[in-house]
Structures are given as C-alpha cells and as structure tokens.
Amino acid sequence: MTDFVAHPEQGLAWVTGASSGIGRALALRLARDGFDVAVTARDHEQLVQLQREAPGPGKIIVLDGDVTDPRDMERVLASIEYEHGAMALTVLNAGVSIPVHGEDMHREDFEKTFAVNLHGTVNCLLPAVRHMQARGHGQIAIVCAVAGYGGLPTGAAYGATKAALINMAESLKFDLDKAGIRLQVINPGFVATAETAKNTFSMPALISAEEAADRIVSGLKSGGFEITFPKRFTYMVKLLRFLPYGAYFWLLNRLTGWKDRPLVTPRPAAKAMTRDPQAV
C-alpha cells in the first residue's frame, strides 16, 4: 500500500523549519490549499507572524520546538496527537548551511550541521512514523538538496548531511511502503532565502521560495519518490555523478572557478562559531 497522498480532510500537515524560507512559504501554501498546518521552529515571534498571515481556509498552529532535542520533538508530536488530531502529512525541512573550507575546518561547524540537518531530521522522523503507523497511512517528505548528489566546494558538512538523508530515505522506503507510509525526498536547486543571500557565487536557475513551495506541493500530489526542481539545473548536477572523478573535479573547477580562488584566512579556533545559525 504505497498510493497514499495526503488531503486536508485526512488530517493536518506538520512543517519543520517554518520560520523562514522554503518552510515558511510551504506552510502558507498548504494552508491556502485547506490544510491546518502545525509549524515548528525555535523563533517563536516569526511563527506567530506566520500564523497571522495564514490566508485560510486552513489555519497555522504554532508549536515551538528545537529539532536537535529528541524529547522536544516527542512533545510536539504528542501535542499534535492529543490536541489537534490526526497528522496526514509531514515535511521535514529544518536545516542550516555552514560553509566549510578545507584549509579552515572547525569541528563545531560539522557538529552543528549534523545536529540540525541529520540528527534533527531523525528526531522528527521517528515519532512521525510511529504516529502514522498507528493510523495505517501517512505521507512524509524530507527536504534534502542537490548538494547531496555529490561533493561541491564548501559543502563538506552540508552536502554530507544531505547525501545521508537521501540514502536514509531510499533505504527506509522499502519498509515504509509496506506500512502504507509514502516517503519522498525533496531536492531543490538554488532557492532565494536568507541563507542563499549570503552566497558570494553565481546561483544558476535561482527561484523564489514561493515558487519552490508551488513545486513541492505539486510533487506531493503526484507521489513520485523524488521532488526536484528546477529540473534544467538539478538534472545537470545529477548527471555529473556519472563522470569519472578526473572529469568531475575538472568540470566543477571550471564551472565554479574554484581552483583560481585564493585560500581563505583561517579563523582562530576559539572563534570558530561566532554565530549560532538557527534551525529556521
């Protein structure tokens, strides 16, 4: 039984990382389509503002939480079950992107990225699957990225988590299909958000968060395993993996101009994390 596609009358949707970017745009789009949407992030004020902007007919339900805390995510799921009803759809979107340069690596950058992107997803996935198993059906989508297709400059931490999420979802699909739970991965290209605004390099085929939300909703309805967009860019990145490594590294250096960029000045170890990126 793998043909389940969530509809508003079957239960609410849960979106993590909903305070900004893709998660925020997706929550608004799902509410416009009639879903009541539980939204989770650490920024309470941003979630409350999102709640005010809900276009209806669905409403936004604010459930603050930190995805890196498994007990917090168990609490969120308990609140959904006992206060708001059945959950038909889950979109696990919370994540951070911390660039890593090989000549300036710091353990904290890896640990933060793994804690939010990988362990944070697992912390949400486990209770969501249990909830849906009890009802015999459900739909879960995990936001990954084309960075998970292969190694890219500065992506040693971020890309590693996204590759792990893709592999994890591929592995779990075999069993979740039998349990009646549709599992999907979402692999967007460049989306205009506060995080990508910090990029200092060209971002081909850049789309807005609202357009990304439209593409995701379309993919959720179609039910295919991978939702990826814009295909003119993401398929090209995927095809790079079929190249021999020599050609792969040569082409990426040529396309990005990375080989000609100067090395960065290493940060002092004590100041490796001068900011605390939010799990938005």
Low-confidence stretches: 272-280
Helix count equals: 8
Percentage of residues in DSSP E strands: 5-15%
Helix share bin: 40-55%
The SSE order reads EHEHEHEHEHEEEHEHH
Q: State the distance separating the first and last CA atoms.
A: 33 Å
| Apparent shape | globular
The CATH topology assignment is Rossmann fold
What would CATH call the architecture? Answer: 3-Layer(aba) Sandwich
- Count of domain modules: 1
Give the CATH level 1 class.
Alpha Beta
**What structural category do the secondary elements indicate?**
alpha/beta
Number of strands: 9
Descriptive keywords:
single chain; 280 residues; alpha/beta; Rossmann fold; 7-stranded parallel sheet; two-stranded parallel ribbon
Describe the overall structure.
With 280 residues, this protein is an alpha/beta fold. The chain has a single domain, classed as NAD(P)-binding Rossmann-like Domain (Rossmann fold, 3-Layer(aba) Sandwich), CATH 3.40.50. Helix content is 44%, strand content 14%. The chain has a seven-stranded parallel β-sheet, sandwiched between helices. A two-stranded parallel ribbon has the order 7-8. Helix 4 links the parallel strand 4 and strand 5. Helix 3 (70-84) packs parallel to helix 4. It holds the Pfam family adh_short. It comes from Rhizobium giardinii.
How are the SSEs placed, and which strands pair?
Elements: E1 12-16, H1 21-32, E2 37-40, H2 44-53, E3 60-62, H3 70-84, E4 87-92, H4 107-135, E5 138-143, H5 158-178, E6 181-188, E7 191-192, E8 207-208, H6 209-222, E9 226-229, H7 231-239, H8 245-256
Parallel strand pairs: 1-2, 1-4, 2-3, 4-5, 5-6, 6-9, 7-8
Family: Belongs to the short-chain dehydrogenases/reductases (SDR) family.
Pfam families: adh_short (PF00106)
InterPro entries: NAD(P)-bd_dom_sf, SDR_fam
